[in-house]
Amino acid sequence: MKALVLIIALSSIASGYNDRPAPELLAKVGQYAYFYNPNFLLPATELEAYCTSYGFLPAAIPDAAQNQQIYAALYSKVEPFSVAAIGLKFNNETFAWLDGFTKYEYNNARNDTDTDGDQLYGIILHTDGDLGGKWTPVSAKKILRYALCEKLS
């Protein structure tokens, strides 16, 4: 019994995010399994550390079909006009997925916003019109309720 308590305590300390729920399975799309946290409540700058603490990677969205499936899967689970952190970073005039595997070939970033320097992105959720499913820059300080992680198979 003492060994079990010690293991639980050590894993909680190691994760650093034990006060946040583990991501829940959202959808499987091709080789990607997507997970989301409906109570992330951290800035997008914490997404990579959060996902990896649970053995996942920050979510990459390689094409329009996957973007639509993720958007549809999240639509009924989130509040209107919300944003979920995804693993997309803009740096030195280029976009890159933080998972280290997915090439940035599909661009769904908003083109009506200015981006200066390093910028992380989120996916716009549960909204009507052209913005639903678009990727939008998020402030490094803005607390996001939702986060998306992935696991490749």
TrEMBL record:
<protein>
    <submittedName>
        <fullName>(pine wood nematode) hypothetical protein</fullName>
    </submittedName>
</protein>
<keyword id="KW-0732">Signal</keyword>
<dbReference type="InterPro" id="IPR016187">
    <property type="entry name" value="CTDL_fold"/>
</dbReference>
<feature type="signal peptide">
    <location>
        <begin position="1"/>
        <end position="16"/>
    </location>
</feature>
<dbReference type="InterPro" id="IPR016186">
    <property type="entry name" value="C-type_lectin-like/link_sf"/>
</dbReference>
